[in-house]
Amino acid sequence: MRSSIDGEQKDVESRKVQRLGSSSLFITLPKKWINKWSIKPGDKVIMELESNGSLKLTAEKVKVSPAKRSIRIDVDSTKQQLGRTISCLYSLGYDEIVLESKKSFGQKDFEEVMGSVKQMVGMEVTEIGDSLIKIDCLLDSEKVGIESLLRRMLNIVAKQIDDISSSLIQDKKRGNGKGTLEELRRVHYMLTRRIIGKREEREGSFTLGYLALLAAQTLMTLTRHVEKMETLFPTLELGEEETRLVRGLLQKINDVLDEVVMTLIFPSYKRISNGFTMISQSREELKELLRVRPDLTSLGYLLDSMLDLLEKAMENSSCGVFIEGNE
To answer: What average pLDDT does the segment 69-80 reach?
Structure first.
């Protein structure tokens, strides 16, 4: 029987549940579905329980081998920077990108493409012609967990903050800040592709993915603030008390960051409460720092901006406890 569901024509069948042995129930699989996906005895079928009471069956061979997504772009008509075009298509989940032009690509165009591809994990330029550039993505985003990518970003930023905190008492320079930003950007692109480019999403998973992207953007913005702070520190003459207060604030910022990310991964009212409590404590400590040294306005502005970012990020992450399946 053919039926229209949400405007889409679908095959709908009704089958009786039968008994197998003394305690098991079973139904047979539709022959049309078996033939279409070449299901054989011993093949695995993935079963997903939906919140609306339906049971979704997917042949494992289909789940692990999604269709390749390809796109051809006429760069003459789009008139966009090649690097920006590639990053957008990567984030949207395309596996094959073909850039075409009626004119010949110049050396500058090739360099822009190569520079962009280097920032995208799994991407390779596989064909170059006078008026055609083909790029393939070998990354299977389905196998990359949102949680692991978020944690990776958290670890990168947390180490950056720890390093500048240590530099206050050890009088040593950090490594290349540019390398930190590039690494963070690569993981951020992977996370964006994993969430936005995913083939199918249930409502709860999509919402969680959206919140994860908001948290990731906070991490990207914070690393910029940390870089500005690193540039500022050598111009300040901090005494023992101010150094203690600044290092305490940086530690609190790291702790709140941890709660922002972990609240998404393991939703908990206690984590939410801890996060907001630490933000309030940090604001009091910042007031104390500026009372001791009223001239530290630039540093105070940076720290206050970071706390504002974290407060909003904590508000966003706290929504995760209300996503169906997380309560």
So the answer is: 85
| Domain map (residue ranges) of the chain | 2-64, 70-139, 142-322
Largest CA distance in the chain: 81
What is d(CA 248, CA 293) in angstroms, rounded to the nearest whole number? Answer: 16
pLDDT tens-place string over residues 2-50: 444 444 456 677 788 888 777 788 888 888 877 777 788 877 888 877 7
Tokens of 97: 């990108």
Q: Is 3.30.110 the CATH classification of the domain at 70-139?
A: yes
| Residue environment code for 98-135, b if the CB has 16+ CB neighbours within 10 A, otherwise e | bbbbeeebeeebeebbeebbebbbbbebeeeeeeebbb
- 2-64 CATH: 2.10.260
Q: Give the model's confidence band at 325: pLDDT under 50 very low, under 70 low, under 90 confident, else very high.
A: low
**Cα–Cα distance between 298 and 12 in angstroms, integer?**
66
Provide CB contacts within 8 A for 196, sequence distance 6+: 91, 92, 93, 209, 213
Tell me the CA end-to-end span of the chain in Å, nearest whole number.
38
Asked if residue 100 lies in contact with residue 73, where contact means CB atoms within 8 angstroms, the answer is yes
d(CA 157, CA 171): 20
Number of Cβ within 10 Å of residue 200's Cβ equals 10
Does this model's pTM top 0.85? My answer is: no
**Homologous superfamily assigned to 142-322:** Phosphate transport system protein phou homolog 2; domain 2 (1.20.58.220)
The residues near 3 (Cβ < 8 Å, ≥ 6 apart) are 9, 10, 11, 12
Q: How far is CA 76 from CA 135, 137, 223, 278, in A?
A: 18, 23, 36, 52
Angstrom distance (rounded) from CA 94 to CA 87: 10
pLDDT on residue 221: 94
Q: How many helices (H) and strands (E) does the chain have?
A: 11, 10
pLDDT attached to residue 172: 54
What amino acid is encoded at 11 in this protein? D
